Amino acid sequence: MTETPRQLAHYIGNADEFPILPHCDFFNHAGVAPLPRRAGDALRAFATQYEERAYLDSGFYRQVENLRASAATMINAGPDEIAFVKNTSEGIATVAGGLDWQPGDRIVTTAVEYPANMYPWMDLERRFGVELVKVPEITNSDNSRIVPLDALLAAADHPRTRLLALSHVEYASGQRHDLATLGQFCRDRQILFCVDAIQSMGVLPINVRAMNIDYLAADGHKWLLGPEGAGVFFCRRELLATTRPLSIGWMNVVNDQDYGNYDLTLKPDARRFECGTNNLPGLLAFKASLELLLHLTTAEVAARLRTLTDRLIPGLREKGYQIVSPRTGDSWSGIVSFISPTHDHTSIWRDLRLNHNTEIALREKRLRVSAHLYNTEDQINRLINNLPGH
Ligand SMILES: Cc1ncc(COP(=O)(O)O)c(C=O)c1O
């Protein structure tokens, strides 16, 4: 059943599409997003089907392959380059565990990554004597916090650098990195480029070809509006054969339906990274959410986030808050982090949740607001009004 694509305006403030709207002013899509109604419907349909008919005539496995194609389209990959994973961590761990590391190999990242993009590399440091280089965050002239592009390039510019591992958008500052420049730099030097895209996929443009990305991972539960525990891992076609799957089970192999004929020949495409039965209900709900986003262009969704964050930031400044998230050029994202010079952040966060039905987040001593396309201008105004002034 194909649905007529909707315009962006249809989704804004629409409680039929986003049932959370009457219940909560929700601004933590960089944490865990609420489900759109259609994703809930997909879960309910799954439950009914499996209660009444098990897998018979469900067509669900075919739908999952459609999701693979849609997810690939969103980042300009091929479906053969997409594997389903249970989370971002599993995708990143596949890269860490899938290559032959030598003592002295350098991995470059930032000093402010979410731990999903830090511990797998620290583990290599411990096990194989890999050198992990963490480029620090600095305070910009406008008081925003960034990891400068030139510092990342300088750190990567070393003959032993094998991999640059980076979040497209940093979870605590909201800084968006210049993937195109970094990717070109890496490709020119045969450095592998691995991107944690959970804070951007679905709402900011990603083009794995134009950006020369080798590996990318994103769970669906933030900006992609899916449920927790169903995500995607991209592996560039040319690297499939040399990236060892993390786990081997019955499904990685070419003849996965020929059970008694043990033939450990891995599938030629990214399905070689899937070791067993997929998270079917999670993927079906993820598909519903992703298709909502694919009714729009990523540029449209990005423009909507820009509109909402452009409304929020002056309001925060007027109330005396200091903005941590960079805004120059393309360094902005859907994340707006800010600091109160005097008030206790936990008290602000708790007051919003308990007294104003408003959900924001606390990360690294910063308050963090992450609105999605369906949030309204009125919700943003209410949030600003309910924050204490200085
Ligand atoms: C940058 C980043 N990577 C990864 C994750 C989550 O990882 P996973 O999908 O493995 O739970 C988060 C969650 O906050 C994140 O901000």
Q: Main traits of this protein?
A:
7-stranded mixed sheet; 15 strands; alpha/beta; 11 helices; binds pyridoxal-5'-phosphate; 390 residues; 4-stranded antiparallel sheet; globular; 34% helix
Write the layout of secondary structure elements.
Elements: H1 8-11, E1 25-26, H2 37-52, H3 60-74, E2 82-85, H4 88-98, E3 106-110, H5 119-128, E4 131-135, E5 138-139, E6 145-146, H6 149-156, E7 161-167, H7 179-188, E8 192-196, E9 215-219, E10 231-235, H8 280-294, H9 298-318, E11 322-323, E12 335-339, H10 345-356, E13 358-359, E14 361-363, E15 366-370, H11 377-386
Parallel strand pairs: 1-13, 3-4, 3-7, 7-8, 8-9
Antiparallel strand pairs: 2-10, 5-6, 9-10, 11-12, 12-15, 14-15
Helix pairs in contact: 2-8, 3-8, 9-11
Pyridoxal-5'-phosphate (PLP) binds at residues 87-89, 114, 116-117, 167, 171, 196, 198-199, 219, 231.
The coarse overall form would be globular
Assembly type: single chain
Beta strand count: 15
Number of helices: 11
Give structural notes.
The protein has 390 residues and is an alpha/beta fold. Helices cover 34% and strands 15% of the residues. Bound molecules: pyridoxal-5'-phosphate. Pyridoxal-5'-phosphate is lined by residues 87-89, 114, 116-117, 167, 171, 196, 198-199, 219, 231. Residues 87-89, 114, 116-117, 167, 171, 196, 198-199, 219, 231 line the site of pyridoxal-5'-phosphate.
